Each structure stands twice: as C-alpha cells, then as structure tokens.
Amino acid sequence: MSLARVGLAVLAAICVPLLDAAPTTAEPVTIKAGWINTPSSLIPIMFKKDGIAKHAGDSYRLEPVRFNASPPVLTALGSGDLDIGVLGFPILGFAIENAGMKDIRVIAGETPDGVDGYYSVQFFVRNDGPTRIEDLKGQTVATNGQGSTVDIAMRAMLRKHGLEYPRDYNIIEAPLPTQKSLLAEKKVALIISLPPFAYDPELLKFAHPLFTQRDAIGRSELAVWGARAEVIAKKGAPMTDLLEDYIRAIRWFTDTSNRKEAIAIAAEFTKLPVANFDGWLFNNKDHYRDPNGMPDLDALQKSMQITKNLGFLKLDVDVKNFADLRMIEEASKRLK
What we know:
12 helices; 2 domains; D-Maltodextrin-Binding Protein, domain 2; 5-stranded mixed β-sheet; alpha/beta; 3-stranded antiparallel β-sheet
C-alpha cells in the first residue's frame, strides 16, 4: 500500500468515529399538562420568569391546558390527549376504580393542605348562624361538587359530629365564586372557601370559619400531578427535565425576596389586581408548596381511606402501588 493510501486509511479511521459521535439535533418533546386553578397551580405561570425553565425549548415544550374541574382532566389522561394532569385524591381513586386506569401514577406533588403554619381550606358560616357543627343538622350546605376533595373533607367533619348525608343535612352544588352570595342570602348554612375567596372583605364582614380541612381530615393532598405509565415510559427523560424546572419554579415563587415580582406575574396572568393577592399569595396564608415538589404519600393514603369510608370508593387502594417518584427524585437531586 502506498504512503498516500495509508494516510487516507488512517484519516478515514479517525473521521468515522467522529461522525458517529457528532451530536444530533432532536425536536423538543411536547408535554401537555392540565391545570385547573392558578396561582394555586404554577403550571401556566411557572416559566413567566426568565431563567427558570432551563430545559424548555431544548428537551421539551410545555403546553398548558386549562380545565374547569378534575373529571375532564381524567378523561383527557385516559384518551391520551394529556400527558400530565392535576388530580385531587378522590379523582385518583376514581381513575383506578371506575375508569380502569390501573397504570395511573402520581409523579409529583402540587397542593398539600393542613401543613403546620400554612393555610388550610376553610368552611364558613354566618356570624348569626350555627355556632357548633351539630347545629348544621337539618340545614343545607354548599359544595363545589359531590365527591370533590373539599366535599370529602366537609362530609368527614360532619360525620365526626354525628351528622350523615342525606339523613341529617342537605347538599347543593355551586361554583366556589357564587357560594358567598348563597350564604349572604341564607340559602345555605355552610360554604367552602379557598383563597382568594376566603380573604374577601365582604365575606369576612358577615361570616367566619367554623372549621378547616385540617380539622376534618388532617394533612391531605388537595392536588398531585398524575401521568400514565405508558407516557412515563415514552417521555421520561424530558418529563424529568420538566420536573427539574418545576422545582426551580416552586423555589423561585416561594422565595420571599421574589414575592413582589411573583405576585405581579400572577396578577398579570389572571388579569386581576395585585391587591387581590398581596395579603396572602406565596406566604404562610397560602397553601404550602414543597420545595422539592414531593407528594406526601402517607397523607394521600389516609385521604383515600376516608374517601372509601364515606362510600365513594369500594376498593382499598394502596397508593404506593400507584406512585412513580423516580423522576421527581432525580430532578431534586440535580438541584442539590
């Protein structure tokens, strides 16, 4: 072989591995994430601050999808039209038992309730109304939806005090924003109230909390992130990147030094005045947000048992069999 040919052969041997090792440019994976309420859910606003979403546009593209309630979220997860959905603990149970979604998995936490030093859902009565829970016997109470997270808590508290539905009280369904007027007009004796409605000055003039969700069922998970095992298998790596950015967002929004800017972001997105949020958002008058995005599976298990005890579920659900925390744990490790 001539020297020239030897040189070409060596060059070829060097270049082939370099070509094989050259990076490939892949399109970011679209991740559709369903949300219901914000700013309780950070999904639609968490990347409004530059620098938080380190991986967005690179490994994934987030597509927030708005829903009015949890049942449509569950439907979208079942049909494959959604990758991640925000689910309350009763809905998680319904997914497993009624929708046959045995592959549903809890992948992250969103809104725990009943954490020491933080807000818990409040149940209001008129100042001239019942003074004890027992006084609700024979009365009508309002719920946002039978079988909802807060509805379960309300029923559990009334049961503790000897009151059973429908034997001892009536229930009507009404959206949370309309419940204040129902109480003001004495059409109901008890309403459910969450921020910002719980801090409405008009409500506080004539009503007060009789009990909280923490009083009723202790610590619970108002909402967790859920995804199906098939989606996790297909999109696990970009979903882990999303969860890393989610943790970064939680930490930024809950950092007291960022609070003014964080409130401004929430106000701009919701098109509500800053004053609507200034007194309670992203402080201890708000719900707690775990800085690592971790759900409390023990609290979730207890809440699921309460749901069964009230007759909304028939099966015993072992929550740990329906959780996959590998991605959120990996995401958390990256930020330590």
